[in-house]
Amino acid sequence: MSEALGLYLKLDELGLQRTDFDKRKFKPFLRVIGGKLRKSARVRVNSYWTSKPNTYPGKKTGALQRAISVKYFRSGYGLKLQQDMPKRRAGDKKEEAFYPAFLRYGATNEKKPRWRILPRRNYIEDSFELHRQEMVNGVAQALGESLKGIFDK
Questions:
Q1: How far apart are the first and last CA of the chain?
Q2: What burial letters (b/e) apply to 104-123, b meaning 16+ CB within 10 Å?
Q3: What pairs with residue 79 in β-bridges?
Q4: Quick one: CA dihedral 140, 141, 144, 148, positive or negative?
């Protein structure tokens, strides 16, 4: 993923710390955001046509689609949309396992410096950009509801 991809919140500028928030009230909002991102990324790789350069990858078995997942941070204050290595199907040998990184980054010939497989569009970044405003609104709502009453005094 690129360096610009992310939603960053600096609590020190607001004079707050992580202990001022109730993690149990914050997590459900993150799960909703993560579910929307995962669904959006999976929809982008749902087409049955053959993959071409600068388009989203095509779907043959659905392994790429099922391998898109959301990792929630252990601290409970963040998430990451990621492309895992797909699980091998029963009977597949290790050499036959599907490796999706070449679709995302492309592949070049070792002997001749030219592209053998051109990179496809980044479905993870595109789904992130599509839902950026929803994520900002969701995080703002989550922070508002998870504050531990420090402003109630």
A1: 43
A2: beeeeeeeeeeeeeeebbbb
A3: 72
A4: negative
